Amino acid sequence: MKFVDLAQIEISAGDGGGGCVSFHREKYIPNGGPDGGDGGDGGSVIFVATSQLHTLQDMRYHRKYKADNGRMGEGNNRSGKKGKDITIKVPVGTLIMDLDKDNEIIADMVEDGQVFVAAKGGNGGWGNQHFANSVNQTPRYSKPGLPGDYLNLELELKILADVGLVGFPNAGKSTLLSAISAAKPKIADYPFTTLVPNLGIIRYGDYKSFVMADIPGLIEGAHLGKGLGDQFLRHIERTQVLLFMVDVNELDIKETFETLLRELTSFNAELAHKPRLLCVTKMDTVDIEGYEDDFEVKEKVIHISSVSRYNLEKLIYTLAEYVT
Known about the structure:
By secondary structure, the protein is of the alpha/beta class. It has 2 domains: 6-157, Distorted Sandwich (Spo0b-associated Gtp-binding Protein, Chain: A); 163-320, Rossmann fold, CATH 3.40.50.300. The chain has helices at 57-61, 173-180, 253-267, 312-320; strands at residues 6-12, 45-50, 64-66, 86-91, 94-98, 104-109, 115-119, 150-157, 163-167, 198-204, 208-214, 241-247, 276-281, 300-303. A 6-stranded mixed β-sheet has the order 10-11-9-12-13-14, with helices on both faces. A 5-stranded mixed β-sheet has the order 3-1-8-5-6. The chain is rod-shaped.
């Protein structure tokens, strides 16, 4: 299934049915009173968040959603049938924004099973039975149904994860995720192996766990649209901690780390305030005993090897301290 994390759709709730103008007719009662029934309410458009979906692909190809109109009222005080609602399932983590109101966020679907009525159906109109009074006992008018809501929406999926992996291509993000979780991301020795975000559940201690997200590798200028990473930076905005991963064989580890940090903060300045760790990867490729850092950063630094599993347990429990 293709990964799609942005979609624009139009939704229309159903119009309410019109009220009925009718008078009771029965043998031996030629001039019965008004008995026009009310129109049925229009159907609504309802969003439901589900953990069973991981993409907005369906909305990319199905752009318009219309709920049913309510039926007209009938004689003998019979109300019209309510229009059928439409339910749209979206992945947990989906933001719903109103394009006609400067992308105002109208719902943030962060819980499995969360329900949001985005477009409410129009109310059905009153039948003429409601308008009879002592002055006018035979009203010959009713109320029309009201139109349903119409919205032009943008849906944006932001994956829910506790830890976000940040690094240039081939920094070892996918290898780490596969080493400490059951996730099976594609791994190869060339750039941009990861083309979609991957999630892994990291278990530790007694029945404890947190979720880690691996996004495609960044390149310098990613926040300006270069490479692939800019398409997926939104997926680390919800994380509680950022794990910056830098290959131990980089010529200047500190400069690489600072470049990654600049890309993130240029995309969203608020990311600068998230807790972060620096993870120096691929320690199996150097002499661990003789290795010494030649850089200084304010962040906590952990050296790991996903291949030899060096310091992976330490990394997991360090990350767990940041996850509430």
